[in-house]
Specification:
- It is a single chain.
- By secondary structure, this protein is of the alpha/beta class.
- It is built from 21 helices and 10 strands.
- The chain has a 6-stranded mixed β-sheet, with helices on both faces.
- Strand 4 and strand 5 form a beta hairpin.
- Helix 8 runs antiparallel to helix 10 and helix 8 packs antiparallel against helix 11.
- The two termini are 68 Å apart.
Length: 609
Amino acid sequence: MFKGFFTILRRFIPPYKRNIVLNVTFNVMTAFLTLFSFALIIPILEMLFGINQAHYSYMEWGSAGVKEVVVNDFYYAVQCLIDRYGSSTALAAIAGMLVFFTGLKVGTAYLAAYNMITIRASVVRDIRNQIYNKIVTLPISFFSNERKGDVMARMSGDVTEVENSIMSSLDLMFKNPIMIVACLTMMLLVSWQLTVFVFTLLPIAGFIMGRVGKRLKRVSLDAQNQWGTLLSNIEETVGGLRIVKAFNAEEKVKSRFGEENDKYRRITQSMNRRYELAHPMSEFLGTATIAIVLWFGGKLILSGDASITAPSFIYYMVIFYSIINPAKDFSKASYAIQRGLASVERIDKILKAENTIKDPENATELKQMAHSIKLDNVRFRYGEQWVIDGVNLEIENGKTVALVGQSGSGKTTLADLIPRFYDVEEGGIYIDGVDIRHVRKQDLRALMGNVNQEAILFNDTIRNNITFGVESATDEEVIAAAKIANAYDFIMATENGFDTNIGDRGCNLSGGQRQRLSIARAILKNPPILILDEATSALDTESEHLVQQALDNLMHGRTTVVIAHRLSTIKNADLICVLQDGKIIERGTHDQLIAQNGAYKHLVDMQKF
């Protein structure tokens, strides 16, 4: 447990070393002031109530050991106070000193907590930033195997668990050991026999607590995994609510969610019961330990052992009792850390995921395309079966190439290889003779604009969606892009024009309007290469006509790769490639392919029918 805890500290704490030093310093001062405050009890008991009849005189520094000089001169000061002002005044003065030092103690304790709060809040912020930054930079292939709900659970629930467990335990893990060490040191000075006896009892209690805490981490991991499953279930249900209602499947999804939710209830119930066991168990073990120490210490005093006096034993018990609360908090912190470590494991699945799409160390500069895109014997697979199998294709500058074929033939995958959403496994893709793996991803994708079948928009204004990814665009440029995309009229008809918020995923707009906004976004970027993935297939006839006009405006003078199911939209393409099982089985213009009377003509005939 401690190994994992200190590993986390090494990863996230270094930027806040100054706060750690201040926290430790103030905690040491708090421990010292606590012990010093308790030390006032002995002279009050011994001298005010006549237990100690000795006469003290002032001792110079160096005339004896440090401990002897400090203790003697403190007793001498109390003695002078009693002689001059009387016992009642001396008692009030010492009580005032106790209040004063207690004030200092709580002040240093607050300053220690003040610095720890800075560390806690900052580390949690850093973890969230790291996860988000990692999610943005990871390749698309990573999310093919992950549920969106589970990824969200790691960023929300798991980070919150780290904050509530590990980060909230930081203060206890730094403060309590200092207090425990300080008290044990003082206990050794007061009576080493009693302290040795205590040392034989504490490991036994620690072993019992450790056995309970060990299983807590595994249960916590199960709970967080199940929470991810629940979030995924909710995300799928909300996203597919139309289908759920259309197929009268409300009871089915309710039942499925109820089962998963009950499973989460059972896991968290078990985890929290075990967690709540920490406090009563530590309190019982602490009380049992105090009782044993009372018996052993009392036995030493009653036997006439000169190593400890009755007042010193009372002071010893006060110190020992002051260890109990830090020890209990320490045990609760260790339980909480076990829970947090389980969440860290899940977070690390994202943070430590390998990014297979990497920039080269000595990248080739590529700012524009002058000649062609060439695919040379390209092969790619997701699992065991090849999805793209030996494709050779050259797309000349300014030409339009269409990819057609049945669903699952590899059209979208082939288009995704060009901007390096995935890396080819064999062969290569070249732009003007430069392998795209030798170019920085940012430079490569700066050459390209994408318009997909599903218009991906953000819950923001129309203006910010059009200018997404384009810095310092002027109003004139935004308006021009909207006009070319046939979007200007409907934009101006909205309540606030370009400043209208379009809602989640553009839910306040129609499908055709969303698509025209995504085209306007691509127009504003003004890329030399366009990738259009079935950009009109989900639209009605009127919207398709408007969007197709916008696409024609967009494609003018650009190198374009078009994926199309509606073959009527690509009749004028310079080259049409028919894909089947990841291979190009036919290629040519529309008229040439019709004349071949092959797979393409079969697709055209099917659509005519």
